[in-house]
Amino acid sequence: MYNSLVITPNTDYQSYRGNPEIRSIEIMPGSNVPPYAFSQCTSLDKITIHDNVIVKNCAFFNCTNIKTINIKNNVTLGVSSFQNSTAITTLRLGDNCITKSSAFSHSGLQELRAGKSCDFGHMSFFSCLNLLSVKLSSHTIIG
């Protein structure tokens, strides 16, 4: 049982996709999360991503129980990385973060807080029908 999982740059991701036992994930600095690594982990409800992390396409696709995501500085989120994560309520991004196309599309996102110099790709928040609160800092780019 994983319950809480700490990811480092040397993590082997083979057994995580669709794992119903993972409840929280902390991704340490310098990690590179591959495509679909945690997709369909339906019990996952909290994620913390530290500085200088790359999250590839669809890494958390269809994780339908995630409520809170805290992302530190200099993090890149790939295409559709959190797409269809319908329970997300809060997203906090640090400085210099990049989201690629459709990163949070069709999610349940309600609150977005972004640090300085963030870059949001095309349709990053497409069909986020519950998004009620957005706070963006200076030099934010919305594509």
Helix-strand blueprint:
Layout: E1 3-7, E2 22-27, E3 32-33, E4 46-49, E5 54-55, E6 68-71, E7 76-77, E8 90-93, E9 98-99, E10 111-114, E11 119-120, E12 133-136, E13 141-142
Parallel strand pairs: 1-2, 2-4, 3-5, 4-6, 5-7, 6-8, 7-9, 8-10, 9-11, 10-12, 11-13
Question: What would you note in describing this structure?
Answer:
It comes from Candidatus Synchoanobacter obligatus. This is Leucine-rich repeat domain-containing protein. InterPro entries: LRR_5, LRR_dom_sf. It holds the Pfam family LRR_5. It is a single chain. The chain has no helices and 13 strands. It is mainly beta. It has one domain (1-143). A seven-stranded parallel β-sheet has the order 1-2-4-6-8-10-12, with no helix packed on it. It has a six-stranded parallel β-sheet with strand order 3-5-7-9-11-13, with no helix packed on it. The chain starts with a strand and ends with a strand.
